[in-house]
Specification:
Structural class of chain A: alpha+beta
Order of helices and strands of chain A: HEHEEEEEHEHEEEHHEHEHEHEEE
CATH superfamily of the largest domain in chain A: PurM-like C-terminal domain
Domain PurM-like N-terminal (chains A, B): 44-167
Family (chains A, B): Belongs to the HypE family.
Domain PurM-like C-terminal (chains A, B): 180-332
Protein name (chains A, B): Hydrogenase expression/formation protein HypE
Organism (chains A, B): Saccharothrix mutabilis subsp. mutabilis
Oligomer: homodimer
Radius of gyration of chain A: 20 Å
């Protein structure tokens, strides 16, 4: 408590852009949160716990090579109900997918609600029902939860934080830092649907009839990919906040490699492209909730791609680029006319409260 | 979407009292959340996952008798900094304690922030630092996290959801449903400090100099109790929201027994008693964050009590009552003058946003 103003600069404050999944957010996490927590290593959406982390509990707790994976994710999406899903199903899918990106099969979920006073009980019921149905479809039980209520105006209806516990599939070692020069970049399906669906629903833009969120669980797709490619599946990431561009930038930086994609090989649905053009958005920066990008060793890439295409959620899978020798973290796109552009991370905020 | 109003009754809405830890909250969880999720069994603050729940992952994931415990908890306390702690340390202690109440040693924490646009970055830094320090003191790493930013007015500064993963200590089987007639009711220390400290700090009542929150980790106390009493430690619970009265009511109901406490054996600090008298609060309903109540088989109760008293956080431990034969869920207190009163659960809201 001081009565004199700060001399030169304004007190730094959290901006909406700090939650974007882009560069501002990476800086906030790196310089404030990870620094204070003393955590190191590549930015992953889920943590792996080995036998050494778990420690003995009398007898060994974990069997040989059996690793646990833990992930947590807050959901503040608005509107809470949108074409293709709602905050309940999204919260389950998002967390299941974070586990899957570390090669884990989900075994338990925990749900924590922060509810604003005045929310219709029926809406809480519908969101819970949707989360329960999504969890049942995934095949993972919700084992525990928590509910807090805050006064009117102290939250925007309902926030959901979902935590997932998983067990790593045998032979699975995907990590953001494991990309190698020569890896093939595979994309499981078209991009941009979630972000444009949310924006359209929020602003009443009229694309709702054409664009639905791609929110869906990806753990079965990942299991099929690991079955086909094993440890040759080096990197898995679902490009959510910040879109494909931010995901590729993070992965390239974490692996110390460069990535080159062929822009026209990245599928963007016609309605998504139209919405993005109208709104001045780059589809590469728009959030997804039902696709993944993988870096796979070239010898296994054809088998992994075939395994992806054999599943409905990977039916549109294709190779979209390569991991190449170059400055660590550089992502470029070759365009139709043969030129090359830098694909940068989202800088600030494109679209707040997308998930 | 319907344009005609609901015919007879108002749409039911979530009230502040639904977050109180009392009867309204139990009803909301029972009739909406647990019902939709299809969960059953006694209300526990953490879930136990056995080898059967985890399933095989090639080889068995969990060693024989090694059970995992998962707990999640949202923290919305206001003010975020208060005598004896802050939202960061409270979030760590609260979750560590929920694990401990199932007999688990904590092995990993996950932190999820919902931040309101405009929060000073320095405040986020201080809260993170405090959580990091609390985790270090406990001896548990924060392994993963998430940060969401919502617009001004869409949250009250900062909410923290903490999830803890633990491993059950050998021989530990405490459960809310395991209380038996004849058990001794042990209380680890004085009650009422957390709730009165928060209220005093929030409202500027002037008790701040005298009352600090009892927020602290209880996992070492629990380890000592289990070491002394093993499976004779039937029930463990930290009486947070809703206070000792609500905790005893829940435990008595879950175990299908009655509980009788001796009112004057329950230690209430002088300053807490004064604050409660001034504010018209019953100390039995005031939240705690650093004490626990246990139901212990009579043959082990002296040893367990001695083990509690040998630790600083259990120095004030004492036997405060008995599990008795009677209507399931009935809790009574014998008073100084020999009369008996019913100790009911907190009904609605005593003090919102206490944790």
């Amino acid at each position: 408590m001081t009565t004199c103003p700060l001399p030169h600069e304004e007190t730094e404050r959290v901006l909406l852009g700090h939650g974007s999944g882009g560069r501002l957010m990476a800086e906030l996490i790196d310089q404030v949160i990870a620094r204070e927590l003393g955590t190191r290593g590549p930015l992953e959406d889920a943590a792996v716990l080995t036998a050494a982390d778990v420690g003995p509990g009398g007898d060994p707790v974990l069997g040989p090579g059996a690793d646990l994976v833990l992930s947590t994710d807050g959901f503040v999406v608005t509107p809470r109900f949108f074409p293709g899903g709602d905050i309940g199903s999204l919260a389950v899918h998002g967390t299941v997918n974070d586990l899957a990106m570390r090669g884990a099969r989900p075994i338990a979920l925990a749900l924590a609600f922060v509810v604003e006073e005045g929310l219709p009980v029926e809406e809480l019921r519908l969101v819970t029902r949707s989360a329960a149905k999504a969890a049942q479809d995934v095949g993972v039980p919700v084992v525990t939860g928590d509910t807090k209520v805050v006064g009117r105006g102290a939250a925007d209806g309902l926030y959901v934080t979902t935590t997932g516990l998983g067990v790593r599939l045998p032979g699975a070692r995907p990590s953001a830092a494991a990309g190698r020069v020569g890896d093939v970049v595979l994309l499981s399906g078209p991009i941009g649907a979630h972000g444009t669906a949310i924006l359209s629903a929020r602003e009443g833009l009229g694309f709702e009839a054409e664009i639905a969120s791609d929110s869906r669980p990806l753990h079965r797709l990942v299991a099929a990919m690991l079955d086909a490619g094993g440890e040759d599946v080096h990197v898995l990431r679902d490009p959510t906040r910040g879109g494909l561009a931010s995901a590729l930038n993070e992965l390239a930086a974490a692996s110390g490699v460069a990535v080159e994609v062929v822009e026209d090989d990245v599928p963007v649905p016609r309605a998504v492209a139209a919405a993005c053009e109208l709104l001045g958005l780059d589809p590469f920066h728009v959030a997804n909730e039902g696709c993944l990008v993988a870096f796979v060793a070239p010898r296994s890439a054809p088998d992994v791609l075939a395994a992806m295409r054999a599943r409905p959620e990977g039916a549109g899978a294709r190779a979209v680029g390569r991991v190449v020798d170059g400055p660590a973290g550089r992502v470029t796109a070759r365009t139709l006319i043969g030129s090359t552009r830098i694909v940068d991370m989202l800088i600030g905020e494109q679209l707040p409260r997308i998930c």
